[in-house]
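so the lab meeting is tmrw and i was supposed to have these ready like two days ago... anyway. pasting both below. for each one the top line is the aa sequence and the line under it is the structure tokens. i havent really looked at them closely yet so no promises
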Amino acid sequence: MPDNVAFTSSFSDNRDTVPAEDLLHGILNISLTGYALYQPVYGASGKEVRDFTFVLLNPKARQILSLPDLPTQTYLELYPHTLETGVFAFHCHVFASGQPERFSVNYQGDGLDNYFHLSAQRVGDLLLVNFTDTAEQSRTAVEQALRQSQAREHLARAEAEAQRNRLHHLFMQAPAMITIFEGPQHVFKLVNPLYQELVGDRPLLGKPIREAMPELADQPIFDLLDYVYQTGETFRATEMQVQLDHDNTGKRGQRFYNFIYQASRNLAEEIDGILVFAYDVTEQVQARQRAEASEQQLAYTNEELAATNEELAATNEELLTANFEILTNNSELEQRVAARTREAQQAQAEAERQRGRLEQLFMQAPAGICILGGPELVFELVNPVYQQLFPGRDLLGKPVLEALPEIADHAVYNTFRWVYNTGQTHQELGMLIPLNHPDDGRLQDRYFNYIQQPRLDENSRIDGVVVFAYEVTDLEQARRKLEQSEVAFRTLANAISNLVWTTTPSGEADYYNEQWYSFTGSSPQEVLGQGWTTYFHPHDLLLMLRQWHEALAQGTPYQVEARLRRADGAYRWFLVRAVAMHDDQGHILRWFGTNTDIHEQKEMAEALQLATRKLAASNKELRTANEQAKQANRQLELTNEQLTRINDDLDNFVYTASHDLQQPVHNMAGVFDELKRTATFHDPEAEQLMHMFEDALGQIQSTIQGLAQVVQAERQTQGLPTEVVELLPLTQSVLQSMRSQITEQQAQVELDFAAVPQLLFGRLNLQSILYNLLSNALKYAHPDRPPTVLVSTRLTAGGSPILLVQDNGLGMDLSRFGPELFKMFRRFHDHVPGSGLGLYLVNRIVQQAGGHVEVSSSPDAGTTFRLHFPSSLLPTRNFF
């Protein structure tokens, strides 16, 4: 007995006469609330609870849930809606925490429709849940009306969705060719499989018909579509010849069609597209033409048949007479029997011709058709379209499981047997059937629409199954990609802090992210498609709605500041923005909006406005300040002009000084060399002083050369013309200038410019970039390993080029030196000589070209430079 259960003294005295187990059973049996005891089912890790099984249900729980004593299904198999409503998460949380907690929910799903109160606590390795509902309690008129409204809403939404799905399925499964054009350019918005077959695998969706079917340019189709779109009048064509490149080989076919062009209208009764229904009547036209050609032959045959009938009548009379002569005239009887045999053979031949015509019809059908005969379901007939679904396989004459062994355990085979045994037709849409690939035998996911219907013999007994099949793998994969794209958008929307929402083109909200529901305390049923205005401050609504309707009408971006009510009732200021996504014709497909919290900024703005009002009281001081500001601005303009002249003078001075100082420094170096050669020093520290002077002189030379190089690079960058530079030969020439150093260090350099072989750049600037980065890679090589350098190019997803130089050298601590990496005269390794200007020049040249440099490095692990350039530096390529 748990420690927290207390008994009165009287019960303690009678504990022996009332066993605890009997008492527990009695309490559970007479309880007016439901009790359930669950056992957790763990995932592969052994830690995460992924489901529960039922251990015990008291009578009231079974009554509320309409369950047997001990259900065999798991908790989530019976109540998957608990995932969406949070009930399952509540159970898992209580089990993990070990603390008793309560939860209330309005549960409408899985056959339940009531408001539930739940309390739960972990007991050992099990979860005990007590719950009750409001099914037996009286409800207020408001609650009843709310529930009735919710029920009507759910029913209406379900019916609308079902109608939409039925309409889409009807279009996609219809035996006619159906397409929907959108806009005055007649862009393909919907194309069913039969219509797509007109042009094979040629893409249609999203393209104007003039672009998708250019071979129609010299035919009346485009003019007819324009006429229907402009006038709204329906056009009907009967047996019109349309020439299309059906196989995409450049040859136009000769086919006849019956079709209807009917204008479609939006809610404003404006024409926004054309609906097309078409049928291929080529076979009928050709059959009629053949029939007309053979009418004379048929008339002649009828005349012969009439004559034959007269002869048969005469023959019948002769037969009556011949009955008396049969015993004496066997020869004549045999002749007549032979004649009747020939007639029977002719009838049989005609039946064979009719059967051949039927088989020809099957073999020429645009759908995949096969006939499976007998209980073994043997392929008796396979038309070419059906055979194309299974390339490289022998089907005809084989049982279905021998020809397609992969389906032995699949639902498609079970439905074959079901149709054969019951005689009922079965249909599937988008059925996944894994099949072996003809090349490597690996299972490949393929999707099919198919109909299986029984075949009856002359005695109306089932003797086989007829199958009509279409492969819809591409369509199904496209649908799944669309769903994945929608999931990715919602995941991203839920990951950001802003409140995100979307609406239909007409402004009806169809999505809010989790942050919206968390902030407002609302639910999808309360806001989707309606009710969002109740969450904004009444004083802000008029402006919001007016600007929103203007944005909807004009398709312009929407922006307004308004106060949104938080779940606790407090209002906060938000910047509400929305932009429209358009199709190629400029029609709005969807609105994407965000609400950004600007409450603090708004308060600061209001405080600023208050300060402004206070300042307004001092107009005289403000005018004086304005005048002073004007004078200061004039002085600032003069100062800026002076600074510009000073910068130009400084630039010229640096260039002149660095240029003019080079000769005196060279003279000093010569004098110093002569001094070292001829002078004799008796001071023991003279040699050290000589080295110090020589080092200082070298630093002066390096600094002067660096300054001159910087100024020269600045001027060259501004004045050098761009040209198409081949990266491979340029890099090879730079490496050739370093050949002795590469050989000495046994360096390995790999070049890969396949992604971006050319850049539109100044050749000398690009040469300077490559020289500085490659020389640094060799200069700062790791002493314990030969240098390995990779120079390559990449292309970002956005189409921008990247030049990458990667080495395995000493590397550097970017957390320490990163901010000073590209500063002038900064060096990070002192064991080799250098000026500290190389990376400054590289960064400066890249920035002036509109790019930026990205560096990744760590000590002893090498350095990688990624030079990002704008896509405008990619040369225009010619494709043949």
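ok protien two:
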Amino acid sequence: MNQESYPVQGMHCASCATRIEKVLNELAGVEKAEVNLITELVTLHYDPTQISLQEIDEAIAKNGYQLILNQDNNHHQADTESVQQRYTLEGMTCSSCAQTIQKNIQTLPNIKSAQVNLATETMLVEWENQANTQTIIDTVEKTGYHATLARSANEQYQADLTRKAEERKKQKKQLLLMILFTVPLFLLTMGPMVGLPIPSAIDGMIHPARNAVLQLVLTLPVLYLGRHIFQRGFKNLINLHPNMDSLVALGTGAAFIQGIVMTILLLATNKAIDGHPNLYFESAAVIITLMTLGKYMENLAKGRTSSAIKSLMDLTPKQARRLDSNGEPELVPIELLQPGDHIQIKPGESIPVDGIILEGQSAIDESMLTGESIPINKGPQDKVIGASLNKSGSFIYEVTQVGQDTTLAKIVKMVQDAQAGKAPIANLADKISAYFVPTIILLAILAGFFWFFIMKEPLDFALQIFISVLIIACPCALGLATPTAIMVGTGNGAQKGILIKSGAALESTHNADTILLDKTGTITEGHPQVTDLYTIDEYKNKEIIHLIASAEAASEHPLGEAIVQYAEENNIRPSKLDYFDSLTGKGIVAKLKQKTIHIGNLKLMKEITQHPISPEIIDQAEQLSAQAKTVMFIAVDLKVIGIIAVADPIKKSSPQAIEKLHQMGLNVVMLTGDQQQTAEKIGQNVKVDEVFSQVMPEDKSAIVQKFQKQGRHVIMVGDGINDAPALAQADIGMAIGSGTDIAIESADIVLMNNQLDAVPTAIKLSHATIKNIKQNLFWAFAYNIIGIPFAMGIFYLLGGPLLNPMIAALAMSLSSVSVLINALRLRYFK
């Protein structure tokens, strides 16, 4: 089963999206299709053995829309005036396969170089000038293998951005031409009403036929430029699935026909008339122009909703300083980078792709990806993330991930997938829009008949009512209400290091009432650290640290590693031991320069020492143990001289984050494998409501189910492999970003900055987004509830004003823009 997303052209409202979804979901071989109006993407889950993309495209085309499949034809022009493309290869089994493909590609004209990597099953192609994707694909197919263009999220985003920019440019040109004809038409018809003089040769009072023909001449180019509205509108009407275009096409079509009939009558008589001739050409032209203006403004606002993704994309530098075989740096486009390349980074530069530091050290600012504002000190063997900023030192690192495999590309892909999907609340708008347009058409007809047959008003009056109802009731705002808010909300989250995988996850989060927190790595740092060192007698702390670090350097125990790290932090290097032995269940013994060192529990100390253990040491050990710390006794030459305490420290942000969750009215529960006394002590320190201790990995999922059976809406927060089942079972799974890949895969939301305070931020963002969606839906409904009776003439019947169709068109366009502007407020959510 394939899952792919493709742009769709021609959608204007929620009923368009609903119609496409319905058509696709009825096709054999399509398991699920979701259409997002704001991103103009359709996400397909389909079986390629049952149905092809061409068949899917044809089904959409029959309803007046277009699926954009040939995105690979857009090539990326690099700074070097060459074109680089990366392909994914299938079918290779050995090095000769790779050599065969590489040789065949290199013989093609216009190819500068081709490199096939068997390990990664990719091929990097560099063209002399313009790329020809299909030639590569066909050549590889003839060789007996399969190739597809591998585009990173960045490249795909840039291609979509270019396409949409071209569409807006074309739309702007079309709009200006429409205005060029509509303005004189409007002045010609409406000018006399406000005292604007009209030349007698074209005055409608003196030469009505001449005036009518001139109006027709000015109207025809506008209708031609907006012909796509009529084509889609009537096509959907014929298919019995009317949409927004159908409403506009019916309304303006009726106005235009009225004008044609009146023009024929005026040409037949060619006499001066009393009053203004009811041609309605200006209504048709102005409505089409205003519709185009509204759509153009809407598209401009839509462009701003993706600003979060654009800001992430802009973080990546275009070139990298790669070291050649002689160790000399050369500037190359990042598209040419391969795993294993060595890159030189200087202070103030952005890191191009992911890798591991080989030489040097620096403070690296990863705030743009994680939301963590403090730069992180990194040195050899530490990982670096592409798009992060090098603040101080210089270093050389080895590339590990490129293209769509980089952390940034995965983040962008995750955000794009979330924005392409739908939230459950969107189903309300979809269901309403499916019945909304047919209902409006019926209301428009009934209103027109009422005023013509019952109220005995003239035909042009009834026609004005009919057109006004059709135009003002457009469900654009209804369709934009949900996807715009989700798009901006998920983008805002990404900038804060909160990656929300779907609109459903964003919506579901705000319903949470119970938060389950894994202790290790979530509430705590996840690795033991030395917290206390207490010594007596003549030994100084530095000397003690040197002795115990030297002893523990030979140990593989995590507590020993914590002691060695503690020594390194104090600039103390361990020495080579003369002797070492591990005493199972008790501790260790070592010899260094005539000194015998024992580190272990109280039982070991009582066995080896011939001196009484100081009451101060015993008392201190008991106090530290009561604080949920692991205490180890230190003996030198068979005399107990002190203790060292190790613990997995609580993250500085954890107590404050849990307090924020309490302020939000949430029940906070901690899960840990620790003993009950230790677990309860940590629980008291961070002030959780409930503690589950001695929890085995397989028990976590059962605890989630327990709360769910009580009717609770559960968020599970964890970071390890053993958290994955619970993350999947919970209503919402949140994975700490530094956790394992499997935990991140199982989660609905990923917290990149590794701090617990991102949890309340994510929940608040969910609340803000859902509130924004409800505001949008309210105003979309309220607008129609007020506008439709107004257009039907109900207020006019009670002595109020009558709605002009042109005002209706303007109001309809502004309603969509107002929904977009309201959603854009989420960009500034803190």
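from a quick look at the 2nd one: Confidence is low (pLDDT under 50) at residues 71-82. The chain has 29 helices and 30 strands. will dig more after coffe
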